[in-house]
Predict the structure of Alkyl hydroperoxide reductase C.
Amino acid sequence: MSLIGTEVKPFKASAYQNGKFIDVTEAEFKGKWSVVCFYPADFTFVCPTELEDLQNQYETLKSLGVEVYSVSTDTHFTHKAWHDSSETIGKITYIMIGDPSHTISRNFDVLIEADGLADRGTFIIDPDGVIQAVEINAGGIGRDASILVNKVKAAQYVRNNPGEVCPAKWQEGSATLKPSLDLVGKI
């Protein structure tokens, strides 16, 4: 079953951010745009490259009213240890959620049950706590956060402009489409 258009399921977890442990629940995703980025594990290979790339886009995402949350099945203690020992991960200022119970990974349908790890899943969540976009990659395929920024802009545009949709390769400020009978077969 697709998670698009569904509300984020309840959870409570511990997280690490900027030298502190914090609690996070699904309520955090309401009232603002959110990006939730699942990755397999701390202290690995592709994961730090993705998380650093996400950090490089974090200010841009924040300027769009988006909060970022990374999630792995590691604990918040492991996130802190990785943050303290890796120059790459040490740059991260967004929230790093621990999911050792696998509740969040199951809620978002990214848990690899046999391994106890999460797939590379990215979710864009609107201010109502409803999932608007999903991307799932195989373990060896890293993501590009600049593409994520464009997807967020498109999701925000569509929300703010009912009756309009964003075509392929849409960029902020470019033409959109207004679905109608007149367009059928003409694109």
Remarks:
- The radius of gyration is 17 Å.
- The chain has a mean pLDDT of 95.
- The CA atoms of residues 12 and 116 lie 18 Å apart.
